[in-house]
Amino acid sequence: MKISHSDLPRVTVQLPIYNERYVAKRIIETVCQIEYPHSKLEVQILDDSTDETARICKETVQQFLDKGMDLIYMHRSQRTGYKAGALHEALKTATGEFIAIFDADFLPPKDFLMKSLPYFTSKEVGMVQTRWGHLNDDYSSLTEAQALSLDAHFLIEQRAKSFSELFMVFNGTAGVWRKDCILDAGGWQDSLAEDLDLSFRAQLKGWKFILIDDQLAHAEVPVQMNASRRQQYRWAKGTAQCVRKFLAEVIESRLKLGTKLQALFQLTRYVVFPFSILQLLLLPFLIAWGFDVSPTSGIVSQLTLGPLAYVYAIRKMYGKDWRSMVPRYMYLLLFGEGISLTNSIGFFQGLLGYKGTFDRTPKYGITGGRDTWKGKRYSVPFSWVASGEIALAAYGVVVILMAMIKGSFLLIPNLAAQTLGFVYVAGLTITHSLAGRMKI
Question: Cα torsion at 106, 109, 115, 120 (round to 10°)?
Fold first, then answer.
């Protein structure tokens, strides 16, 4: 699909930034290299920074202003509404018909707008999301696990929603909005999951979303477990806030039954984490009381079909390189099991109405194996949730021994994965906390 230069609409690119000294200059420079007529491109730098990032942004903006580009530097002394608040304020003066948004660690390709805008030919399309690529997916087992999870999200989940009537979600960055869609949906509103919040409001009003899965904007995968934990906690809590906000509205809506059920599953998907922990806690009592907790057919199916389905998905996602990606599934399994306590806490706090602050996920400009985050600023301190994970790991060992004594051997693989997951996440939390305090 192509679009004539004479018909190109005006676009505003928004860059929400908060204390990103390692990547702020890079994102501004990268966006200013996007191939689009300067007369129809506006770039807003939404800087809430309280450190030298503000100076870096100002100096970089001035360089491109001297070259005749339309850059606007906007600095707020208070982070009212956090990222959503910054986007809300900037939208008031944005002159573009379309709004592209990038987080500070992203690197959009030069043809990003020229490839994205043609998908807005239908007036019903309110948002176009592009796929995230990874600058450092092979940095560690942690980045490999997160990269696989993100790839599955975009290439399976988002792709399926885009080609159906199911609700799709803006991923907070690397996407383009029709400005009228944002305004019609009520604009950006204070939420820890501002992307999910606006996505639901827009689609409940009938707007359509599209994924471009062959257009990648590369970004940094969190390299510190504590930073990844913070991100997961924020996503879980923000999603739960949206449950409170939209659950009744979705149930009462006139959406098709399939769309409605999928939207409800989307909102409540984090409930799987507390249920997983509850299962672990109850299992020894059920075994002791003589309940049949190991039906052979069900457990054998779970142990075989689940991994086989994921390996098949990996083969479809990565083509000829799929075999080298299979080990990442093991890391993802450990990470997913181990992060369940963090996600459970976040989800319940959101359901109970706790607002909290928008704690960003720090990025360090990591693009290769030789780069390091150790000794740099923004290192996230130790989380005491790791103590609970260690306790759950010890509890898991007891349950495994009990299952062996009772002859419930089919339970052991899942119990081992869950126990090792807690060890993995807690272990990295401790080691990364110590490494983050190093001066190098």
Answer: 20
